């Protein structure tokens, strides 16, 4: 009887391990939206204005690749975004913008008045990037409509919404607090 208890435990633990494996596969985490190199560049840049600039470069590349894929252009072998669909690109774009907004909010809350100039530069960069992105997203929306790609169309609209929100947030942040690095003098 003492031999059966360890065998029952072993069977129980094996069954439990199988269940966890199935759950892990079926509920696997979302696909990473940044490449290893992009993650490395983000981690190397602690200053908010540089970090936001990098994020926005990566976001813009997602929109460019999505448009290229929809136009029939294939990626080069070894391209880190090679196996991503236009839908993946838009999902990545959205998640990058979420990260930008979280980083900006966090930086704004934690920085002192002397460091706010970096936040202001980041907000200006965000504003400019969103103005460009919204134009590109309208092009993607038209392509999605022409190709009758409903999922893509929905993702583009979601990306447009977050881009408009980011643009409004950037404009609001810029207007509330003047950039202390501006060299304008009052006469």
Keywords:
0% strand, 187 residues, globular, Methane Monooxygenase Hydroxylase, Chain G, domain 1, 2 domains
Describe the overall structure:
There is one protein chain. The chain is an all-alpha fold and 187 residues long. It folds into 2 domains: 1-30; 36-176, Methane Monooxygenase Hydroxylase, Chain G, domain 1, CATH 1.20.58. Helices cover 74% and strands 0% of the residues. The chain has 6 helices and no strands. The chain is globular. It starts with a helix and ends in an 11-residue tail after the last helix.
CATH class of the largest domain: Mainly Alpha
Structural class: mainly alpha
Q: Could you give the count of β-strands?
A: 0
So what's the oligomer here? single chain
**Approximately how much helix is present in the residues?**
over 70%
Largest sheet: none
DSSP helix count?
Answer: 6
Strand content: under 5%
Low-confidence stretches: 1-5, 7-29
Mean pLDDT: 82
Q: Outline, from the CA principal axes?
A: globular
Total individual domains: 2
Report the radius of gyration as a whole number of Å: 23 Å
Brief summary:
This protein has 187 residues and is an all-alpha fold.
Describe the protein's topology:
Layout lengths: L3 H23 L9 H9 L3 H23 L15 H25 L5 H31 L3 H27 L11
Helix pairs in contact: 2-3, 3-4, 3-5, 4-6, 5-6
